[in-house]
Design a protein that fits this description.
Blueprint: E1 5-9, H1 25-34, E2 50-54, H2 63-76, E3 80-84, H3 93-99, E4 104-109, H4 111-121, E5 127-132, H5 138-142, H6 149-157, E6 161-170, E7 173-175, E8 178-182, H7 183-189, H8 193-199, H9 201-214, E9 218-224, E10 227-233, E11 235-239, E12 262-267, H10 271-283, E13 293-298, E14 301-306, E15 312-314, E16 317-319, E17 324-337
Parallel strand pairs: 1-2, 1-3, 2-4, 4-5
Antiparallel strand pairs: 6-7, 6-17, 8-11, 8-15, 9-10, 9-14, 11-12, 12-13, 14-17, 15-16
Helix pairs in contact: 2-6, 7-9
Length: about 350
């Protein structure tokens, strides 16, 4: 049976100290083909050593229970398990694990934790696994990764395949689900972390209702692959994945994380009735039929700005910037996913 270190960090923020140059897909494929990838129970060979990062503050704070499950799975498959707790001063655990030779990075947390770790993993020849424990888990949902912790761990250590997903690069960080300006991002600014852990998705619903009642929209200037557009909207949502994150709602089934293009959703819905119409169609999976949303597409670059200052949200986190400036990076991150999707 294979052996190798599996390290778990349990809490804290981590810095992203890595080069801006991305490895080419051909180089990554060649490195993957030539590397030693012992099988650990699945049709695709789990690459070892394995490194796991747990955010114990994510969701209901189940870090210790997940750690125990990982330990049992690693022992069952003959993979060495090592635990280390992360303090605020312990920076860049993913980068350091890769320097030590890790070939698979596992993240146990929500979209924010997953995105930060994936930004680093995408710069290297490693595979990436997700055990979703956050509030929305948009990236995991879009890839049919189970939200049940035990099932997600069984997927990683059992039968799976790897799918290379696209990324949206802003500065030194990559986003993998949504980047937004408007009502959606304003909701996140007003979130309370304690309330979010305690009440989960109800926090989003309460904040959303307040924004809807406010009945706001703004003028946006967009530059998509060099083509300029001007729109008035309540929200501009740049989507690499389709789930909204609430009650199975979708921004559009045509939105795929591995098709080499990014959908730009210009949402005109204002007030209670406008948003009810949009959300009804989203719940029924007919968002594309709604007159409250317009779809634009980009494959290389996306720029969005507004004369009124608006927060920018990326993968669940508010960014310290007032505009969106994205480079589309296709097939940048190999993610462990189910062998078959129903």
């Amino acid at each position: 049976m294979p052996s190798g270190p599996l390290v778990v960090f349990l809490k804290g923020e981590f810095a992203m100290s890595f080069a801006l140059s991305l490895p080419s897909n051909s180089n990554r494929d060649a490195a993957t083909a030539d590397s030693d990838k012992p099988s650990v129970g699945g049709s695709y060979k789990l690459r070892v050593p394995v490194f796991a990062l747990i955010n114990p503050q994510s969701g209901s704070g189940c870090g210790e229970a997940v750690q125990a499950q990982l330990h049992r799975a690693a022992e069952r498959c003959g993979v060495q398990f090592e635990c280390e707790r992360l303090s605020d001063g312990n920076r860049d655990p993913v980068g350091r694990a890769i320097e030590r030779g890790a070939k698979t990075i596992l993240v146990i947390g929500g979209d924010g934790t997953v995105s930060k770790a994936a930004s680093i993993a995408a710069m290297h020849d490693v595979d990436f696994g997700i055990v979703p424990t956050g509030t929305a888990n948009l990236i995991a949902k879009s890839l049919a990764i189970p939200e049940d912790t035990s099932a997600a761990i069984d997927l990683i250590f059992g039968g799976h395949r790897v799918e290379k997903i696209d990324g949206m690069r802003q500065g030194i960080q990559l986003a993998f689900s949504h980047v937004s300006m408007g009502t959606y991002s304003r909701i996140a600014v007003k979130e309370n972390a304690v309330a979010k852990r305690r009440f989960g998705k109800l926090v989003y619903v309460a904040r959303a209702l307040r924004e809807i009642v406010a009945n706001r929209d703004w003028r946006f200037d967009l530059d998509l692959d060099g083509v300029r557009h001007r729109r008035r909207a309540s929200l501009v949502l740049i989507a690499n994945v389709h789930p909204v994150g609430i009650a199975g709602m979708s921004w559009g089934d045509q939105i795929r994380p591995s098709d080499g293009r990014i959908e730009v959703c210009v949402i005109r819905a204002k007030g209670f009735l406008g948003h009810v119409s949009l959300l009804y169609n989203a719940l029924k999976g007919r968002t594309a039929e709604s007159d409250q949303i317009e779809y634009l597409t980009a494959t290389t670059s996306i720029k969005v700005s507004s004369k009124r200052p608006l927060p920018v949200r990326a993968d669940g986190e508010i960014l310290d910037r007032a505009t969106i400036d994205i480079d589309v990076i296709p097939a940048v991150l190999p993610v462990i996913v189910p062998q078959q999707v129903n």
